[in-house]
Amino acid sequence: MNALILAAGKGTRLYPLTLDRPKALVEVGGITLLERAILKLSHDGFRRIIVNIHHFGDQLMAFLQSHSWPEVEIIISDEREQLLDTGGAIKRAGKFLLGSSFLVYNVDVVTDLNLMDLYQSHTLNNPLATLAVSQRPTTRLLYFDKQMLLKDRVSKKPSNDVSSPAKDSYQTFAFSGIHIVSDKILDFMPTEDVFSIMDLYLKLCKTYPIMGYDHTGIFWMDLGTVEKIQVFEKNHIHY
Q: CB within 8 A of 84, min separation 6: which ones?
């Protein structure tokens, strides 16, 4: 099965650790974020992994070329000329992802979520995409209905649109940076090269099913800041 690790980001929230290296090569507990992600995906059954590169892309390419992981094929999706955002990254890597649904995984995520359970849920329900979500504090909440279909983004300002559905009938969840995506999504890509996949999901969910997969209670952590890395290293030494 195919997976795309999003590793091209500049890692501005991780300054000063990313002044001389890409975010994906920041070490946490002596292991780079990228290797942690590869090991997680390999453990959960993904055998073909595409990694996109941009910031300090030469370092990432050298790292990947000097390492190998049993039973895993690594492919580089090169964005060194232009950072393409999450949607653009999927569009660029699309030629490697045709033929079946695929996993998209943020490089700074660590979790106990069984990715095969997520994949099987996606296969059973057959939506355009299945987003791993949980109920946790965040400023970027999403609305889902009782069938866990994505409906909207939670606005910071109350809506005055009386024609919109009653938001009190929806559940709110935070996106976990992990999603299973049907390769049919490639048919809906915009003409521009740089765009957010979440913006595309929010547009498409008006017509096509975009589902949420609730993993509330299963360990998940975003290691995108120095403070979060320090908390992780102090409290999760078994990882």
A: 8, 52, 54, 91, 92, 193, 194
